Amino acid sequence: MMTHYDKLKSLSGAAHYLNSGTTFEQLDEIAYAIGDNEAPQRLNQARDDLFRSINKSLKSHA
């Protein structure tokens, strides 16, 4: 299955869509730095942290 990132890379002239100074080599280092199992764990942890901070903020304003 193709990820969104893989699909972007497969497009003709895909580098045109990147921010100035950003290369696919740089993005590859980031994309492939962590494994397939670690990525969703990090996502879930970041999501949990975000919701905890939102709830904490809402409780302090109540």
Outline the fold blueprint.
Elements: H1 4-10, H2 24-31, H3 38-61
| Overall residue-averaged pLDDT value | 93
Largest sheet: none
Which spans of ≥5 residues are poorly predicted at pLDDT below 50?
none
Total helix count?
3
Strand percentage, roughly? Answer: under 5%
User: What's the gyration radius in Å?
Assistant: 17 Å
* Structure classification: mainly alpha
Measured between the Cα atoms of the first and last residue, the distance is 46 Å
**Topology order in helix (H) and strand (E) letters:** HHH
Describe this structure in words.
The N and C termini lie far apart (46 Å). It is elongated and about 50 Å long. It has three helices and no strands. The protein is mainly alpha-helical. It has helices spanning 4-10, 24-31, 38-61. It has a domain at 25-62.
Summarize the structure.
This protein has helices at 4-10, 24-31, 38-61. It has 62 residues and is mainly alpha-helical.
List keywords for this structure.
62 residues
